[in-house]
């Protein structure tokens, strides 16, 4: 609220400074014809004093009307009555200042209209001119304030949207992390039951993966180099358990510092091991290809599988990843192919069009 208040003060202060400069320029230009015998420094001084005096009428008028407009306690009929009374009071104050102060004390002359004394008709015409001058100023103030309020509302909605998406992404990551770690621990548990010699190495690899999941993955984004390194650590854990597994890993990255949301890419590899290799009775394979060139990522994971389908068991994870991709990377495509003997996904992300949270 304090930030909004300061922003409003700055906007309105700037408005009144610019408005004052504009009015001084216009009246100074007009004074050349009204007082041709007065030298310009005196005319400028008179104009500065004149417009400063008018501000003491216009500023209270503008903010009185704004107060009534924004106050929800006033009924509509009562608001209109207040509008009329405030404007009439301002017109009288405007005329009083011009007739009794400006002309006799600032200009040192009697007020006339086109060289004529102010009769009833001319008085009415001059009062109408004052009314139009005040209404023009009020319109400007209302336009500035309404525009400012719309911009503030737009910023607040954008912030709320960002916070909502941030919370949703945090929740989605929280769904992935326990699922991923649980499956990995199950793999090491199976090795420990067999008293495999590679168990300590697998635990060491798991510690690196857990460190990544607990600390690195908590960030909104991370370099793709670190994300790929985490995938390689995960693969090493799985290769210790699946000795007959063939893993083909191809990597071509022209910008290792390119940032990506953590835990998106590894989810497809984890599914390939869990629902492909772990369920295969014979020799199995996983082909992984990751290519990043000029901000375009092409990532594919293909694995062998038995004829029985594991579609239901991967739906939750796949929906989770799809939702993250929709939120973070508007320009992406995800193609999933599921045949009788293999399962493959191909992901394309255009990092040039990324939603920043």
What is the global morphology?
A: rod-shaped
Structural class: alpha+beta
Secondary structure: helix percent: 55-70%
Q: Mean pLDDT, nearest integer?
A: 80
Rg, nearest Å = 37 Å
> What is the succession of H and E elements?
HHHHHEHEEHEEHEE
* Number of helices, counting only DSSP H or I runs of 4 residues or more: 8
State the major sheet: 5 strands, mixed
How far apart the termini lie comes to 22 Å
Tell how many strands the DSSP assignment holds: 7
Strand order of the largest sheet: 2-4-5-7-6
Low-pLDDT residue spans: none
The percentage of residues in β strands lies in 5-15%
SSE layout and pairings?
Blueprint: H1 2-34, H2 40-70, H3 76-107, H4 120-193, H5 199-214, E1 222-223, H6 224-241, E2 246-253, E3 259-260, H7 265-277, E4 285-293, E5 296-304, H8 311-328, E6 332-338, E7 342-350
Parallel strand pairs: 2-4
Antiparallel strand pairs: 1-3, 4-5, 5-7, 6-7
Helix pairs in contact: 1-2, 1-4, 2-3, 2-4, 3-4, 4-5, 4-6, 4-8, 5-6, 6-7, 7-8
Structure description:
The protein has 357 residues and is an alpha+beta fold. It is built from eight helices and seven strands. It has helices at 2-34, 40-70, 76-107, 120-193, 199-214, 224-241, 265-277, 311-328, and strands spanning 222-223, 246-253, 259-260, 285-293, 296-304, 332-338, 342-350. Strands 2-4-5-7-6 form a five-stranded mixed beta sheet, with helices on one face. A two-stranded antiparallel sheet has the order 1-3. A hairpin with a 3-residue loop joins strand 6 and strand 7. Helix 3 packs across helix 4, helix 6 packs parallel to helix 7 and helix 7 packs antiparallel against helix 8. The protein is rod-shaped. The protein starts with a helix and ends in a 7-residue tail after the last strand. The mean pLDDT is 80.
